[in-house]
Amino acid sequence: MRILVIEDNRLLRDNLQALLSAHGFHASFAADGRSGLQMALIEPPDVLVLDLGLPGLDGLQVCQRLRAESDRHVPVLMLTARDALDDRLLGFRSGADDYLVKPFAGEELVARCLALSQRHRAGQPHVLCIGSLRIDRRSHEVQRQGRRIELHQTSFDILLALAEAWPRTLTRSELVQRLWGDTPPDSDPLRTHLYLLRQLLDKPFARPMLKTVHGVGFRLESDEGIA
Prior knowledge:
Layout: E1 2-6, H1 10-22, E2 26-30, H2 33-42, E3 47-51, H3 59-69, E4 76-80, H4 85-93, E5 98-101, H5 106-122, E6 127-130, E7 133-136, E8 142-144, E9 147-149, H6 153-165, E10 170-171, H7 172-180, H8 189-201, E11 210-213, E12 217-220
Parallel strand pairs: 1-2, 1-3, 3-4, 4-5
Antiparallel strand pairs: 6-7, 7-8, 8-9, 10-12, 11-12
Helix pairs in contact: 2-3, 6-8
GO molecular function: phosphorelay response regulator activity; transcription cis-regulatory region binding
InterPro entries: CheY-like_superfamily, OmpR/PhoB-type_DNA-bd, Sig_transdc_resp-reg_receiver, WalR-like, WH-like_DNA-bd_sf
Protein name: XRE family transcriptional regulator
């Protein structure tokens, strides 16, 4: 899970870095509202942990602008020392999904982040469809134009990541992070896995779906209308 933390207290950032890394999460950090908002818009995290008292833009402004400008829903967990009911209600009206008052237990923050990420996926269908492509998250079955495609696990993980991001382009670094986390192999296996995926997903069909966006990354393109 990718978590973005926007927090201006350096000691708390360091503590959260250790906590989130220990639980296997990939955490990015920003120390002010403006840079944090840009990070969230450019590469939306699975969960945003957002302090309220920030320089530049405060947490409420960041949340409001994120809701107005992002092309997807990013779950937001607000962190604040303000524990009055009115403060909580203002946070929720600004677009927060959850609220955690400082000081807090690290395990509770982790549990809330996990719950938010799962809640965000709860409404997503088990089967993703893009054009004639059909991906079943539960059974890992993949079909295109009604023909079953047998994929190894890594190829399936790449395809699922691209399908979940569709129509957005995923950067190479995003795919590497999704597959191997913070410990990518020394070699460049992504190139090989993308080649294998293309052979199975595209070669038997008239129109390729896996596209390379030069200088950016990779994305899926619908084959809608192709028989």
